[in-house]
Amino acid sequence: xxxxxxxxxxxxxxxxxxxxxxxxxxxINADPNNPSDVPISxxxxxxxxxxxxxxxxxxxxxxxxxxxxxxxxxxxWRSFNQYTGLTANRFDAAWTNVYxxxxxxxxxxxxxxxxxxxxxxxxxxxxTEAFTLMMATDVWDDMPYTExxxxxxxxxxTFDSQxxxxxxxxxxxxxxxxxxxxxxxPVTPGSDDVFYGxxxxxxxxxxxxxxxxxxxxxxxxxxAMEAAQASFSSSADNLAFQYPDANAAGQWYRFNRDRTxxxxxxxxxxxxxxxxxxxxxxxxxxxxxxxxxxxxxxDFLQELITYREMQFLIAECAFRNGNNAAAxxxxxxxxxxxxxxxxxxxxxxxxxxxxVDPGEGNLTLEDIMTQxxxxxxxxPETYSDYRRTNIPDLAPVSGxxxxxxxxxxxxxxxxxxxxxxxxxxxxxxxxxxxx
Length: 435
Known about the structure:
6 strands; two-stranded antiparallel sheet; two-stranded antiparallel ribbon; about 425 residues; mainly alpha; Serine Threonine Protein Phosphatase 5, Tetratricopeptide repeat
């Protein structure tokens, strides 16, 4: 992770792309088979920031609302919170950003990397694509992939199964590690890489972390644990983007500024934390969602995958595999890292409570997942954790079920003949790894 105030101009350009570029037939990249000659060093920061933006934006807001860390309380967000407003058009922007501003740009950059043997760039591109695909398929299940990104040559790409997409991401991550362990090529990534400044070893750690997340979803607990143990050794290793300031602020600050009062802290999370006497962390995050919020600051550190997530992942996998000592150690590491991330004091007093640390022999999966749920505040992965484990035990806001996925984009229903409107029931149509 790097501090990148120098990218304010790039950040502004990314917002312009998101607003103006038309994936099918627009002036920018109208023909992906004959892309404009844009240096890869200019492309890389643009789609990296676009990824941080959509992950900390739509994916964070919707996923954390569905997992009841935050709640929509006004205007359309109230209807989203009640599930009635979760119509297909609400997911248009996220779908477009994933395909147009990230995956399409990665594909164009990859051609440049392959043509010039830019191995380290290729490794970074593979990891970024794998993360993006996993992020997207975890809420949309089957998606266009092998026939996607062909522009006007194919406006109705077939849908690949989530299982096949997961297999592709795992292969990409393995290939990326090989590329990053090899010679960098004639040009080496540097300050144009807004996540790690071109540090190949940091990217390898991130690849292992992403792999661990995917293997956990697939219930390969031993493989997930091994990958996590080969990943981050501290929070300094996190895959994250530091937003510069209020002129190019983090997504939650921008939302609270522009849509004040639409979303607030959720009573479910508040109740869980109060029940555990978790007052110090609660003080840092349970505030009115306005621009004065002391956690959702302008220069927000937008994390994509973290050390604390890996520690809780290790704790879960070790517990499932009967290694209580390893589970207990990682569990406490995850809580401690969460206190540090939230800027909260009182870790030692908190874990001294029997309700929080019952000892390695009495630790339960509910203990692990509850603490992960708290520690992953505003992280989209909380929604995957809830769907996998049903922890915490959430009461639906309305009706009898919490949604188990997102609907597809309304634009995809309109333009892709392989998708039939009304074919998705987001209350019952579970993604592949959750069936």
